[in-house]
Fold this protein.
Amino acid sequence: MQEREFIASGRESWERLAASAKEARRRGVKHMGAPALQRMHEDYRRAAADLAYAQTHFPGSNTQAYLNRVVGQAHAELYGTAPHRLAAAWRFLARDYPRLLRREWRPIAVAAGLTVIAAVVGWVAVYTDHTLARLLLPEQFRDFSPRDFSSTQKANAAAAAVYPLIGSYIAVNNVQVAVMAFAGGMTFGALTVYAMLQNGGMVGVLGAMFTQAGLGTAFWAVIVPHGSLELPAIIIAGGAGLKIAGALLFPGDVPRGTALRAAAPVAARLLLGTVPLFAVAASIEGFFTPTAAPIPLKLLVGAVMFGLLVAYVLVPGRGEDAEIGLT
């Protein structure tokens, strides 16, 4: 085949591929629509084959250079170079993730309800049966009692020793609980429910113990600054686990495996979006919480961080929700 004939046979699909790559770069691949994306994939496969042919039969020609450029641009949009992956990650966190949280609010709300109920039960248990309450505490805290803080001087000394231990334990424990809550979806939600109840109960019991000892404000000053992000992150991870459990328990009119394959990517994105929350919370817990900043300031920082999180969930992408029927 002569080069002129080769160009004539492929020009239409090459130019269409170049236009598709330009459109994908402008709008993003996800917004092209399934038919356009399928056509782009087909044009890309043909252009890649034509490039291989041109490299063999027309090496160094303008045709080879043109195809090399078009195929490279299309590959970058379809499969993502590092800058495109960064741009996609930014779009996910800045717009898509808040919309995903709003769309999947039901399993997240269930996880939040389980956590709150467990915290309330744990709080009440301290005042009714301290022995029973100890069952909800991790081993290193089971020997603590409000009676250990009988005087102000002793309370201050004990608190100074205990608070760093509590803060670091809860920070590590929260990440473990989040992973367990997510993976627990594969147990039909049993492990997810346990993770939510265990974590909420622990916070409630510890909070009640120190409040009963007259140290509640200082205790919450240790927990609130980073917990205002960590606890919601755990609840979201729990919601992701319940999303998987829902597909297993209530697959509807499709096979259970099909329902699970549909729910798993959504659940995975829910979990993935918690990574920045844990990262920011860890920074606060490591660099701000241990400082000698006044307790009111620490509580204020926690309140501000939680307020920013609420705004992040409710505002970004709100105008686009109606376009695709999200609520």
Q: What stands out?
A: DSSP finds 13 helices and no strands in the chain. The radius of gyration is 27 Å. The chain has two domains: 3-80, 99-324. Residues 216-249 form the longest helix (34 residues).
